[in-house]
Amino acid sequence: MKQDISQSIVACAAHYGEDADAMRDYLIEGERKAYLLHNRGAIRFDEKGDLARDILDAYSKYGFYIFEGVLAEEELDDIKNDLQAIRESYPSEPNGKHTKDGKPALGADCLAPNLVWSKPLGDPLGGTELANGRHQVKLFEPKASELAPKHVPFILLGSLQFSESCLRVYGHPQLLHVAEAINGKDFAPFNESLFIKEPGIGAAVSWHQDGATHWESKDFDEGIHGFNFMAQVYGSTAVNGVWVKPGSHKVGKIDIKKLVEQSGSERIEGMIPLLCNPGDVIICNRQLLHGSFPNCGFEPRVTVNFGFHRRSSVLGVQGAGLYSEPMFYDEALIEERSKALGYAIDARKQRFPEEPSYKYRPFIDSGKTFHWNDAAKAELKDYNLRDLSI
């Protein structure tokens, strides 16, 4: 899989002024190194039904794996239709309650946070205390076109309540089998979101590691903070995609400011981009050092993002409270938060009835059943107030 994005690379680098040549070379070299890694291919299971050993080994070594061709064109079309409806329901301004034409805006009656905004090509999280201060440095913010809007949405939180197609991706049986292989049959949910990087305006996400709670735990290991699936709707390039530092999930909490200082710029040495076609899904360890530059290129990126934890990582833990007040995670809360997974599995069954559905062990043990309908849809409102953030 290779994409010709040379024009986007040149356009992106041009935004960096006197650093244009260095940025261009960084993008090109990162792309070259990314294709040298042996961690991409179809989801495969062995004769026992377990995830293929070489996939597990590669994920452990690098901290990520690219599953190719997971979402078919039909499913991608469903997501694109939902994305168009979501765009049409954006509020006219940050925290607004109405669209440009006066209709109730997306999430207007929600208590939980949903749309996160940025100035075009900005880095709204970098160098702030937001998200537990994990974004230690601020990335360069190029100047956007004078025609660009003043504010642009770039993250939609609690996305399952706004998109039935994203809910169905959440219930994807092969991906859930992967989650089971990594985090056990009783794996627990984390959160779900859409990352929106429109060409010419999409915001940066400064270098960071996602974990917050367990860095000093006596049980610390490479998987204690869980992982994210990152499903690509339009694909992912060196210009618009996430960059990662392979293997950094094993070394503990990183001093990112020091890394930037050692590298001489925000172009940290050893980072590579996650290069994907539409329909590919990345599994990315949350402890991996990662981030993305502002999308100065010509290709859009929308990532359907959702993650899972080991149950042992969240049960009995005081959560990190990523976008809400910290909570104590007991069995009752985990069970309540897992309802979204039950609805997702049934919603997918209704859309793809010939596809074998995933059987989630905690639902089997409890005898609980779920049916996706209008009542269930109403129940998902503000479900992300119960996100299990660690």
- How large a portion of the residues is in β-strands, by DSSP E? 15-25%
Mean pLDDT: 95
The sequence of SSEs as H and E is HHEHEHEHEHHEEEEHEEEEHEEHHHH
User: What is the CATH C-level name?
Assistant: Mainly Beta
Low-confidence stretches: none
How would you characterize the largest beta sheet? 8 strands, mixed
| Total domain modules | 1
State the secondary-structure class.
alpha+beta
How many E-type strands?
A: 14
How would the global form be characterised? globular
Task: Bin the helical content.
Answer: 25-40%
How many helical stretches? 13
Per CATH, which architecture? Sandwich
CATH superfamily: q2cbj1_9rhob like domain
Supply Rg: 20 Å
Q: What is the strand arrangement across the widest sheet?
A: 1-2-10-7-12-5-4-3
* CATH topology title: Jelly Rolls
What gap, in angstroms, lies between the N and C termini?
Answer: 34 Å
Notes on the protein architecture:
With 390 residues, the protein is an alpha+beta fold. The chain has a single domain (6-339, 379-386), classed as Sandwich (Jelly Rolls). Helices cover 30% and strands 16% of the residues. It has 13 helices and 14 strands. The chain has an eight-stranded mixed beta sheet with strand order 1-2-10-7-12-5-4-3. It has a four-stranded antiparallel beta sheet with strand order 6-11-8-9. A two-stranded antiparallel sheet has the order 13-14. Helix 1 packs antiparallel against helix 2 (20-34) and helix 4 crosses helix 6. The longest helix is centred in the first third of the chain and has 16 residues, at 73-88. The protein is globular, with a radius of gyration of 20 Å. The two termini are 34 Å apart. The model has no long low-confidence stretch (mean pLDDT 95).
